[in-house]
Design brief:
single chain, four-stranded mixed sheet
Amino acid sequence: MSMELKKAIDQISKDKGLERDMLVATLEEAVRTSVVRKYGDDIDVEVSYNDESGEIEVYQFKIVVAELDDEDEDGNAHIVLEEARKHDPSVQIDDEMGFRLKVEDLGRIAAQSAKQVIIQRMRDAEQELIYDEFKDRRGEIISGIIQRRDKAGWIINLGRTEALLPKEEQIPREHYKRGDRVQAIIIEVRKEGRGPQVIVSRSHRDYMAALFRREVPEVDDGTVQIMGVARDPGSRAKVAVLSRERDVDPVGACVGIRGSRIQNVVQELRGERIDIVVWSPEIATYARNALSPAVISRIVVDEEENLLEVIVPDDQLTNAIGRKGQNVKLAAKLLGWKIDIYTETRYNEANAIGRGLEQIASVAEISIEQFVTAGFQSIERLREASDEELASGLGIDDNRIADLRAAINFLSPAPSASNGDDADGETE
């Protein structure tokens, strides 16, 4: 029986990857807990595992006294001198004597209790070991087998533990079945009561970056650096790259010969289209690259509002915006800036109106902010407004209203009556 215990310890240590000393300490503590439960807290007991014999040795220590007091009627902590001298004739009062207890004498309930303590301690130790193994593996790609589905997502068997692929971390329209092998990136390791919870993702932007590190040696060794990733998982993505060496083309390195490298990434992501763009510290240049394949006429940068006004030729609007706005949304996400797209025609018209308002405001000595606040955002709106609307909205008197109307007529005259007469004449 003793050698069976030794073999069990060795086998558990090997199978579970647990330290042998920890298992022995757990076993000793479990037996000690059972002894205390059987005999009471006042018992002085020492438990040790004999590795040579494979036995658990339990010793109870008692103080030699002349007689037992009322607090120790059962003799758990003391032994009377007469009884003690039956074991050792030379013993004296206040000496300490040790008596070996048989583990078998603990009883069925105590033995069962010890077993439960051992199982729980081993489970805790195994879970702690698994947590320590995975907590530093965030950002690493793992592979596992789809095991089952629950309300939170798919459960993936990783061997020693399980991982959760939540619904929100899945690629839309991907379907799995039990037994499928799937790859994902570890994004979080939680410490929960039932054990460590490994959370993985296939839709996270870091997953794409990790795939490029795996497929592109220049990315893995830092020659090419991934500066940003924006994804519409399962549909399209943009990856910004920068080369640390002048002779290395970052886009070419990521694409590979005949597209071999990027195709491996695309295949893993079930056909997700990927645009590789060159990163630049100049936001206008970076934006121009990010909005590819659209042709850009010019870009106006508003750093205070973190806004880019992008002007494109009239026939490039669809390319710039993309299907369902995907191209401009991904570019904005990649840059971290707001992007407004204008055609050249629309931008020039808007600017003409804006410049006209500024001129009128200057001549009439009324700030452009007053016009905008009062809701007069175009020359036409000013021209159509009644005197009462102008007075209440802008807070000006009749004289200034007259000056304002003079400025409007001078800088942006309405179509003349003679033009109307000529038109009428031509129709007659």
